[in-house]
Design goal:
The chain is built from three helices and six strands. With about 130 residues, the protein is α+β, with helices and mostly antiparallel strands. Strand 5 and strand 6 form a beta hairpin.
């Protein structure tokens, strides 16, 4: 697979912050997920289209290391790089950096697979092509 890092910029919204005035830890998963969906669109994989065709991409595991916090109004960028983990699993290595200073906020590994309409894991041709495997 060709090395490719996708980046997506966002802003923190007021309602994403907790009583401490920082982004709630669960919100970072939303940022990561939104960026994964944008990445899939950028490589011509439409999450909604895959689902409509019975190809369900699912998260199996998430590892998140919180390094610092974002607060309301902060601008940030989320990056994602996809990799093959095993014959039926793929990973998204992701980081969140505050802008403009590029301070690392979160680093994560999201491991997923695809499930067919019978609930069985498989790797569809669309993802095989992403990894450059014949």
């Amino acid at each position: 697979m060709e090395e490719f890092t996708f980046k997506h910029e966002m802003d923190v919204r007021d309602y994403e912050c907790d009583m401490q005035g920082i982004v709630n830890n669960s919100v970072y998963q939303n940022y990561l997920e939104h960026t994964r969906h944008q990445y899939l669109k950028a490589i011509n994989l439409d999450f909604a289209d895959l689902t409509a065709r019975g190809i369900n991409l699912v998260v199996k595991r998430i590892e998140i290391d919180y390094q610092s916090s974002l607060k309301s109004g902060d601008k940030f960028v989320v990056d994602v790089k996809m990799e093959r983990i095993s014959p039926l699993r793929f990973g998204f290595r992701q980081n969140i950096y505050r802008l403009p200073d590029q301070k690392l906020i979160v680093s994560a590994l999201v491991i997923g697979t695809s499930i067919n309409e019978k609930g069985r894991p498989f790797l569809p041709d669309e993802l095989v092509k992403v990894f450059g495997i014949e």
